[in-house]
Amino acid sequence: MSTDDDRIREMVARLSLAEKVGLLTGRDFWSTTPLPSIGLRSIVLSDGPSGVRGPVWDERDPSINLPSATALSSSWDVAVATRYGVVAAAEARRKGVDVVLGPTINLHRSPLGGRHFEAFSEDPVLTAALAAAYVSGVQGAGVAATPKHYVANDFETERFTASVEVDERALREVYLRAFEDAVVVARAWVVMSAYNAVNGVTASEHDLLETPLNSEWGFDGVVVSDWTAVRSIAAARASQDLAMPGPAGAWGDPLAAAVRAGEVAEAAIDRKVARILRLAARVGALEGTAPRDVPAGDDLGAAILSPSTRTAPARIEAGRTYALTYRFEYVPVPGGLEGLLATGIGLGPDSTAPERLLAGAESLARESDVVVLVVGTNSRVESEGRDRTTLRLPGRQEELARRVIAANPRTVVVVNSGSPVLLPAADDAAAVLLTWFGGQEYGTALGDILSDAEEPGGRLPTTWPRAFEDVPVANVTPENGRLAYDEGIHIGYRAWLRAGREPLYWFGQGEGYTTFAVGEPRVAPVADGFEVVVDVRNTGDRAGKHVIQVYAARPGTAIDRPVRWLAGFQAVRLGPGEAAAARVAVPRRAFAHWDDGWSYEPGEFDLVVARSAGDPGTVVRVTIQDDGR
Fold it and tell me: Are residues 620 and 528 in the same domain?
């Protein structure tokens, strides 16, 4: 045991039961209970997946508004995710926030999920890697990150009460896998438990908080509840540590009485208190401790919005969440395109769009050399607390797109949404730019990309359907309080491949403004799996980015598996004519399946280097033994 642990144990031993129980419920909406007798100040928490809101929410205390998680995940770049976390930490420190309540790493199980703009991806491996990088960026600056919402909170309808019915294999291989790296690799200091139940047990009372989170992954931080998600004393018998908000709630005096009655062991209370004190020491809230300094030389504005890292811009009218911020400044589309376009017509996504506006847009398009048509959603369409009922663009935007493109096929369609929408006119457009929700610099970023000053460079973190009827996993509405994940491990592109359906755009798909030649992959065994090495050359006349994607597959498998599944990836940035060897680590766990433990089907597996989940790619074969070697 370390000296810090000895000190924390001694502190806990000095506290009365009332003092200990008092530390386990928030002092108010955003902060924990202080205890001056042991040098403990209040710990301040704040929403912050795309900008740190802070305990005060008004125009006097603005925040940087960062691109949405779907924009960040389009980078497929852990370095970008780390720098994003650094910006979030610096904002937190500026606002006196100790704990950032993010990242949101629930999965895009269905494109109807109302909060998917705030989550990374449909794939657990991509999500896990980016989440770990985000956590490392935040905590490297002495601020706690909070992966959320643990676990299977991939929908909003009846989220407070619904039970997700999911088998153990899907839970381990898909939904828990998305959380794993943030804890095991990045050592997250806080994890948030979800509102929903899993197989009939409320998340804040679930054994999953102990296994695998603590016992297998080595989590030694604080499990904080989603706000009001602790509803009973039963949560105190589980590995739930902190109930927020406070001071009213299910714990407090009733919890103290339950301990005295022997219904809850005082040792369980002591462990929770010790974890809160450990968190306090990590963020500098305990006397004699101090948070780490924000890494020097990482400019707030440049860290995520610089040309070298900007990958998917979007406008400030983003999805609605309790993490809303008042932003410093906002560069809208017209401001960003000033000097590029001669004139324009405004048509918001909520507008009923009178015929005169559509006719005017059509006429203007016919007279123009090039058209930039911006369509999309807003916070009335994508929102925490409710799921979508359709993927269609709101208002008359589909009609607008058809008429404008028919009038001028030299139309660039810019899609400003946080999640997939239907684009029936996409095939007829000259180009389609998926911009997601990109924060306060949306207009500037869009102008840079459309003027060829910068390239988009992103790859899709989720599959986009051509028609809603094609979506293989769509249901987000519980029946009789239950939402069945009957598809098991087959979500996202896995489900599309299993169904043999062709989407509009595959997971991993994306283009830039240059071309790349990719050599034959080479594979070599390493200590924990394999390393795939691929030579990449920029064959164009400008700088750009390519993403090496490695998928695993098992021909002739004896068990139910995806057709292929993401095993590793690596972003490569090269100047014109430059070449590099991309190295992609494929851990042996990529070949495992869950069967009351991690198991390995011995034999030959394919590693497929592809440009997307739907690209046949180039195959190299490896052999796996029954112990995973």
Answer: yes
User: Annotated catalytic, 626?
Assistant: no
Considering the domain architecture, whether residues 389 and 528 belong to the same structural domain is answered as no
φ, ψ of residue 469 to 5 degrees: the values are -60, -20
DSSP state of 622: E
- Residue 449 domain-assigned? yes
Residue 262 CA to residue 298 CA, distance in Å, equals 52
- Read off the pLDDT of each residue in 173-193 and give the average, rounded to a whole number: 98
Domain tally for the chain? 2
**108: exposed, middle or buried (C-beta count within 10 Å: 0-12, 13-18, 19+)?**
buried
Which residue type sits at 462? T
On whether both 451 and 379 belong to a single domain, the answer is: yes
- The CATH number assigned to the domain holding 606 equals 2.60.40.10
Q: Residue 586 is inside which H or E element, if any?
A: strand 579-587
Tens-digit pLDDT profile for residues 546-566: 999 999 999 999 999 999 999
Give dist(CA 350, CA 373) in Å, integer: 16
Which sign does the torsion angle of CA 25, 27, 32, 37 carry? negative
CB 592 within 8 A of CB 628: yes
Task: Compute the distance between CA of residue 446 and CA of residue 331 in angstroms, rounded to an integer.
Answer: 10
Note whether 574 and 433 are same-domain residues: no
Contact (CB, 8 A) for 423 and 413: yes
If one compares 329 and 183, the residue with the highest pLDDT of the two is 183
Q: Which of 47, 123, 181, 226 is catalytic?
A: 226
In this structure, the answer to whether residues 388 and 528 fall within a common structural domain is no
* Average pLDDT of span 241-265: 96
Helices (H), 309-396: 333-336, 355-367
Amino acid (1-letter code) at residue 437: F
What own/partner pairs with CB < 8 Å and gap ≥ 24 does 264-267 have?
Answer: 264/233, 264/236, 264/237, 265/237, 266/17
The reply to whether 436 falls in a domain is yes
Question: What was the pLDDT predicted at 345?
Answer: 58
Tokens of 267: 């040792």
Give the pLDDT confidence of 331-368 residue by residue, as tens digits. 666 666 666 665 655 566 655 678 888 899 899 999 99
Tell me the C-alpha distance between 241 and 293, whole Å.
27
Q: Rounded to whole angstroms, how far apart are CA atoms 12 and 19?
A: 10
Give 469-476's long-range contacts (Cβ < 8 A, gap of 24+). Answer: 470/501, 470/503, 471/110, 471/111, 472/496, 472/498, 472/499, 472/501, 473/109, 473/110, 474/110, 474/111, 474/112, 475/110, 476/109, 476/110, 476/112, 476/113, 476/114, 476/154, 476/155, 476/156, 476/157, 476/387
Are 472 and 455 spatial neighbours (Cβ–Cβ below 8 Å)?
Answer: no
Res 305: pLDDT = 38
Q: What pTM, to 2 d.p., does this model score? A: 0.94
